[in-house]
Q: What sequence folds into this?
C-alpha cells in the first residue's frame, strides 16, 4: 500500500483520467499573501463547480497549517463536513498566525478521492 501522500491528487500529480477532474476537485484557497503577526484574517476554501448529489459530492474539506520552524507539522486548523444536496463545499474561517508557513487544503470527493492545494502565507 502507498503512503497517504501518494494517494492525494494535486494539479501537478494528476495523470490519466484525473487530469479532467483537476478544475472541479482541487480546493481553492483565498487568503492574503502577507498578514500581520497574531492579527486575525479571513481564509476561504471552496471546491467546484462540482456535482452535489448523494451519489457524487464533496463530503469534507480539511485545512492545515505547516508552520516554519515547527518540529511537528502540519497543524489541523479545521475539518468541515458538507451534507450532500444541502451544503455547498465552501467555508470561510478566521485565522491568527504567529509565524509564516503554508496553508494546505484537502478535499474529499466520494467518487474521485482526495485532492490537495496549498498557499504560502508570510507573517510580518
A:
Amino acid at each position: 500500500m502507498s503512503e497517504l501522500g501518494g494517494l492525494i491528487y494535486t494539479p501537478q500529480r494528476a495523470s490519466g483520467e484525473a487530469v479532467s477532474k483537476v478544475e472541479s476537485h482541487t480546493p481553492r484557497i483565498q487568503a492574503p499573501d502577507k498578514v500581520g503577526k497574531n492579527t486575525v484574517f479571513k481564509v476561504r476554501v471552496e471546491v467546484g463547480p462540482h456535482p452535489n448529489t448523494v451519489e457524487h459530492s464533496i463530503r469534507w474539506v480539511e485545512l492545515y497549517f505547516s508552520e516554519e520552524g515547527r518540529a511537528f507539522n502540519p497543524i489541523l486548523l479545521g475539518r468541515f463536513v458538507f451534507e450532500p444536496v444541502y451544503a455547498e463545499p465552501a467555508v470561510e474561517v478566521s485565522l491568527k498566525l504567529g509565524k509564516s508557513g503554508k496553508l494546505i487544503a484537502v478535499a474529499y470527493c466520494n467518487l474521485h478521492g482526495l485532492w490537495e492545494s496549498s498557499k504560502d502565507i508570510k507573517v510580518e
